[in-house]
Amino acid sequence: MPSRSLRSPSFLVLLAATALGFGGYALLLPVVPLWVARGGAGEFGAGLTTGVLMAVTVGTQLLVPAMLRRVGHRPVLVAGSLLLGLPTPLLALTAELGPVLAVSAVRGIGFGMATVAGSALVAELVEPSAHGRASARYGYAVGLPQLLFLPAGVAVVDVLGFAGVFLLAGITPVLGAVVVAFVRGPARTSRGRRVAVRARDGAGTGPGPDAHPRERRRRLPAAPVLAMLACSTAQGGVITFAPLAAPGARLAVPAALFATALGALLGRGVAGTLTDRSGRPGALLPVGTLCAAVGLCGVLAAPLAPAALVAGAAVVGAGFGLVQNDAMVALFAAAGPLHYGAASAAWNVAYDAGTGLGATGLGAIAEPFGFAAAFGTAAVALLLLTPAVRRRAT
Known about the structure:
Layout (H helix, E strand, L loop, with lengths): L8 H20 L2 H8 L3 H20 L2 H8 L1 H13 L11 H29 L5 H50 L9 H11 L21 H24 L6 H27 L6 H16 L5 H30 L4 H30 L1 H23 L1
Helix pairs in contact: 1-6, 1-7, 2-3, 3-6, 3-13, 4-5, 4-13, 5-6, 5-7, 6-13, 7-10, 7-12, 9-10, 9-11, 9-12, 9-13, 9-14, 10-12, 11-12, 11-14, 12-13, 13-14
């Protein structure tokens, strides 16, 4: 049986493949809207490219657990990485909105497959006692490319041109698909169904290689999903509207975006260590939601003090990092080994749906009432959610 430690070759290869895939994804997030805007699509069309990408991603994520049961983790991850990368160079052929949205939709299918399969593999490749630290390291593989490429995407266009960026963003996920071939993990999650049948029939209940400590499916808890959705909404709002909330702060805005991503990475690292030490996944959820609410209060002061925007964004990111890691481990623990795919899907849907809600929902509040009302509403929602999450987590 392959080693299931944090230093196992398969887990390290998974991290490399994840970084490559998310590198291509992050590089294009600011570039595709700029591409269609220069092609005459306007602001709505530019935003629609990201909206379609995320909507298709969330829709696909709901279907991935069934894919994992039918064909296995690695084939789904490989297919997702290829769908994310192979169509990307086609963007260079035209800046018309229709074809770009079609390519974005295909990439969204690939991204949805890759995100759920990748995070489910984290739970499969590492022992449950190390899930906290494993999830944190997976978070580094996801977050570091975004930390580097989100601020640099437009600058890379000035060096390579749009065609060069599209080619680069297409190559990296394809390389990730090649790397996945070296992952040695569960070939088919349908094996779990066979284990469950054997356990029901009185066989296979011993400590054999296919035996799992939890074989009866349990309902996933609401607290991790709610905390993820709320914190993702807050961070999505900060990322989307920081440039508009502080238009004169030329240095503070990019610093705030960087601070948000860095805070999330640090929060995930802290949460991973604390969760593994305590053995109580879910205990950090109220800490994270409260932290994000406090950070939004700092963002509210951005028009008066640009430094408050940077500090507030960092605290929002840190709170979200705590919640990201603790929610993932709590969902894995509740689902059990036979249903890691369902847990991964719930986590990813909450993440991506919240990001979209932060851009659209808070934008709907900000347009008539201003950004103070939008960020204030999000902060109040987090404060009200904190005691509920605490009760559910305990």
